[in-house]
Amino acid sequence: MSILREAVVNAVVHADYSQKGAPIRVSFFDDRIEIENPGILLPGLTFDDIRQGVSKLRNRFIASAFREIDFIEQRGSGILRISALSPKSLLTLCILKV
To answer: Is pTM beyond 0.90 here?
Structure first.
C-alpha cells in the first residue's frame, strides 16, 4: 500500500464526523502533501502512543468496513507503516501536528 493511500485511509478512519462541515482535506504542494482530518486525539492517547502503534478507534464501523475490503491490515499499524515506507528524510512526518 502506498504512503498516500495509507495516510488517507488513516484520516478517514480516525476523523471526528461529529464536527459537521469539517472536511478531510488533501492538499498538494510542490514539496509536500498535507492530509488533514477533523478531530483531536481521543482522551488518554498521546502522540508518543501513536508513534508506537497504539490506536483508539473513533469509528469502529468504518474501520471494520475498511478491514473487510483490505484497506486496513492491522489495527494501530498505519503510522508505523507510513514511517517504514518513507524515505529517511520524511521520518519527521508532520501528520502528528495539533
So the answer is: no
